[in-house]
Amino acid sequence: GEEATLPSSSDSTFAQIARHLDVEEDRVTKLAKLMEDPVSFEQNVDGRDGGRDGSGGGSVAGMTFDEIIGDEGQDSPDLFAYNERLCTDVKNMLNTLSERERKIITLRYGVLRNRQMTLEQIGSEFNVTRERIRQIESRALRKLRQPERNSIVFDYTESFPM
């Protein structure tokens, strides 16, 4: 293979790189300049400072680098607030059940804990059979289907944020 050597002058380096890549030297120079200059996340992709320019049209030109890159690991403030309200409302709905029913539903479906348990595991915790837990679960679910109870969270099924 062919090995490239870099001369001491950056101008001639750009010319060599351009020849090696078969692109215009001006393009290599611009790319090198971009790599040197710090870029603000608040700067628009098209180089202007500030947020959206209102032009719309689905173009990213009016968007900031921060808006495009985002933080995949972090929920948006709107989604975070939505989830907080949903948790509060689910707790309020579960509070319409007896303490035993509430605990069984919470354990069975992993509500607010994210860890589901089997009927048998819950039965062991309550010292009753899995069939008895199933009966209590069934009664609690019937109660939760009542409109006066589930209206608390019904709106969430219609307005889930994307």
From TrEMBL:
Top-level taxon of the source organism: Eukaryota
Pfam families: Sigma70_r4 (PF04545)
Transmembrane segments: none
GO molecular function list: DNA-binding transcription factor activity
Region Disordered, annotated ranges: 41-63
Record-stated family: Belongs to the sigma-70 factor family.
Protein name: RNA polymerase sigma-70 domain-containing protein
Organism, as annotated: Chloropicon laureae
